[in-house]
Amino acid sequence: MTVPxxxxxxxxxxxxxxxxxxTIDIFFPTTATYERASHSAATDPRTIGxxxxxxxxxxxxxxxPELCAIKISFPRPITQGALRDRDMHAGQQHVPLSGLxxx
Length: 103
Hints:
Layout: E1 3-4, H1 5-8, E2 11-16, E3 21-27, H2 31-38, H3 45-52, E4 60-64, E5 69-75, H4 95-98, E6 101-102
Antiparallel strand pairs: 1-6, 2-3, 3-5, 4-5
């Protein structure tokens, strides 16, 4: 049975990692849920690249098993604060990933 990542995780949030990068933090309630997500499309750079229209080679994924957390970072499509920046703090960038189905 698949579950949206946002339901599997305790918290999914996004934020700036400087003016040129976005970071998404995903925290899980248990080691089992962390492991389930760690071996899913949520940690596949190609899936992330497709979701965010970013070159998959530029995506960085950090597994933090001792925290039951995964951190995903990628370049912002538009520099923070630029004229066309619609999410200056990158606070809404986690939404596409939250809906990703996890088997």
